[in-house]
Design brief:
mainly alpha, 5 helices, 128 residues, 4 strands
Length: 128
């Protein structure tokens, strides 16, 4: 495996998959305290992006990385009606991403291949 697994490189590549500006203005099914809500259209954008990586060599990396970006954007929607992708802090995405990777590695119900676990191990060895 001779691939670039540096977080900043992965982050910049993943971020380029998202629209330049994201509309977060419409919250649907929102509780009065915003403990449960969805952002109109955000899930659709995420699933379209995620679909590009299914069955790719880096599927687990990019699907988890895009989920981390989605989680951050969804949280942002509580406070902002929109955001430019260039405003997303890589450090915050990295925290979410790496926590998700660690949790996912501990699960047995994800249908990951042995190569997926080795890829995550290689990622962490290069991003200490």
């Amino acid at each position: 495996m001779n691939m670039q697994l540096d977080f900043e490189t992965l982050f910049n590549q993943a971020l380029s998959d998202w629209p330049e500006e994201l509309d977060l203005s419409v919250l649907e099914h929102a509780d009065s305290d915003f403990s449960h809500y969805s952002v109109k259209g955000l899930g659709d954008v995420f699933y379209e992006i995620e679909g590009k990586f299914i069955d790719s060599e880096l599927e687990v990396i990019f699907c988890e990385l895009h989920m981390a970006i989605y989680i951050l954007l969804r949280s942002t929607a509580k406070f902002l009606k929109g955001i430019k992708r260039s405003s997303i802090r890589s450090k915050m995405v990295k925290l979410i991403f790496e926590e998700r990777l660690k949790r996912s590695c501990a699960r047995s119900d994800l249908n990951w291949r042995e190569a997926d676990y080795k890829l995550v191990e290689l990622y962490f060895s290069k991003n200490k």
